[in-house]
């Protein structure tokens, strides 16, 4: 789907073909929904209990690097000029590069990627494979069961709202930043890029490693969400004081905690939903994230127009603090880890919250 979408873009450069841009972007957007679930699914299928979070973090890291490149390359390759021909040439070069990358990855996956290893890498995967052979993964039943899992619903709400807010900021940060620093828009792209890299790369790898070594999902989640709230408050104060130095510090800091949420989100969702299929739990997680993001954009736009940006910032701070508090209501029952401990009950896989 990504290859098809990027191919259509090559024919959508002309100004009278904007509808082709909408079609191509929609196809790529639908494909992204499936792609976002891949890191956790691949990690659980191929890696053992002591390395699955780190493996997921590495997969998530490269999706974040892709996002960072997506934010950077258009500004470098498409000139900001009034000459339509020059702009069109820049878009054509960008789309050719996009097609080369997409087609190359498609061919590599098609011919070189195996769906699963010869033998399960962990006890939890072996149990799931045996169960799936018997029941062939009844998704309707699994979906109904997930809606009855209190811990999974809390994870869905806490992380769906938090990471959804981060996604919505990608849409609205330009409006917020330029309202306080109208002459310094050129710095925003760099700050957002640093924020994505700090959280999506360094933060993701760091917290993925910590989860593998400690299995302290609840404590790690609370610390990251609490820091996320603190950094957002500091960033909001910096905006209100029109402090450029403050924005240079706290946009990357806020990106560090927000970008790191992705690996924690997926891994915590899988822990609380096991033995249901990973693709179902992460798919529901993605749906919650996008629904919260859409809802958040609509509400914040209304608040900005009716009460001002400060009111919207306060509303976001309340939202982040509520998410951090809700994490404390999640139990310490790590179902996937319990299944893995059945294989070697005396082996030290790290201590749980219990």
UniProtKB/TrEMBL annotation:
Gene Ontology biological process: heme export
Alphabetical keyword list: Membrane, Transmembrane, Transmembrane helix
Keyword Transmembrane: yes
Pfam families attached to this UniProt entry: MFS_1
Its membrane topology: Multi-pass membrane protein
Entry GO MF terms: heme binding; heme transmembrane transporter activity
Entry GO CC: membrane
Ranges that cross the membrane: 52-73, 93-113, 152-173, 185-208, 220-239, 245-266, 287-304, 310-330
Subcellular location: Membrane
Protein's name in the database: Uncharacterized protein
Organism for this UniProt entry: Henosepilachna vigintioctopunctata
